[in-house]
Amino acid sequence: MLAWVAGACLAAGALEGADAPPVIVRTAPGRFEIAAVDSAAAHFVAAAAEEGWRLLQGPLGLPPAFTSPVFVRLIPQGAAAEGEPFRVIVEPGGVVSVWLRGGTVPQDTLQRALVRGVLSRLGVAQAGGAAAPTVPRWLELGGAQWWHTRAKPAQLDAAKQQAARMPPPGLTALLDGPRDRPEQPGYSVAAFWLLTFLQGESGRAGEWPAFLRRLLAGGDAQAALAACYPGRFGGPESRELWWQTGWHHVRRVRVLPVLEAAESREQIGGLARFVFHAAEGDGDAVVPLRSVLERGGEPIVAAELARRAAELGRLTPLLHPFYRNAGLTLAAAVAPGAKNAKRCDELCATFEQDWRDGVELEQASTAALEAWERQQRPPADPG
Predict the structure, then answer these.
(1) Does the pLDDT at position 303 exceed 50?
(2) Fewest C-beta in 10 Å: which of 189, 264, 285, 350?
């Protein structure tokens, strides 16, 4: 730990003393702030951080924003001590920072670092900054695998295939495994299925959120499991049977990699919203899609359009049918290539209509389901 603190101080000095000033990139307010000497690296991490937040917001119960972001610092090559590729530090008062070493950070390392940082910040938000949160190893790895399998749905099939070839590991070994033990083959996949299983076992009583809160507060995992999932098992043997039965169930469940309508709406809405630094003043401004497309030849705009086109190429197959047309139209609008004013108008008008159609379908579907649920409720007892 002392070596990493010294490395962090050295890195801060390296950032301040570099020829080029450090680049600060912020995602949505209260989520992440990335500092790096390399602008491209900072923006790459920012995009990954936003993707991770989006995919983990549901399973981890993340708020819309924290009161202070997770601070991510990319340490120049050679500036930090040897050892772990990243370190998460919770300072007195609850400030959480993630220090990543090196130039190009491998995807799995980046995902683990950001997941640990977010979980640490969630623990601070839940319990305050008096004591550093505890992030169990299995929870960090399970969260990273959740992110990986949701970002690349084919990896979900790979996780199922790997689980089919291995016996379910003991629940006690998973929950209580020390962080400094060398990772065993299949541990990450097992952690992912445990995360999936515990969420599936959670209902209206909020078993999973309560269990997660206790874990981050440093509570004993076995005691927390028994307290938060009452009635599932009676002792160690039945607990293991409960877990092993769940293991085989979750790995066999057919999961269609399709987002819910609300999630699809949020994703498309975010990708259609452009915020650029205002030409006059220090603030940012929301720029209409038409204006962005008309200025698509400018380097900064072209780079952002290319990034969103790549994101839509991955996202479109996952969209809910209500918003599939809107995703396809937006993908055509931001696709590379020059577009005249008439073509820009056509694409924007089509997207806006497809977007309205999707919203109307979602609202009509929600209203129909709510009406059906009201009909299924038993009449109130007049007594």
Answers:
(1) yes
(2) 285
Q: What is the pTM of this model?
A: 0.66
Q: Are residues 19 and 76 in the same domain?
A: yes
Cβ(354)–Cβ(326) under 8 Å?
Answer: yes
- Give the best-scoring range by mean pLDDT among 111-120, 226-235, 340-349: 111-120
217 neighbors 125 (Cβ within 8 angstroms): no
Residue pLDDT, tens place only, 240-298: 999 999 999 888 875 555 677 888 899 999 999 998 776 666 667 888 999 999 888 88
Q: Which residues of 45-83 are buried (b: 16+ CB within 10 A; e: fewer)?
A: bbbbbbbbbbbbbebbebeeebeebbbbbbbbeebbbee
Residue 378 lies in a domain: no
Say whether both 101 and 200 belong to one domain: no
Domain that holds residue 340: 261-373
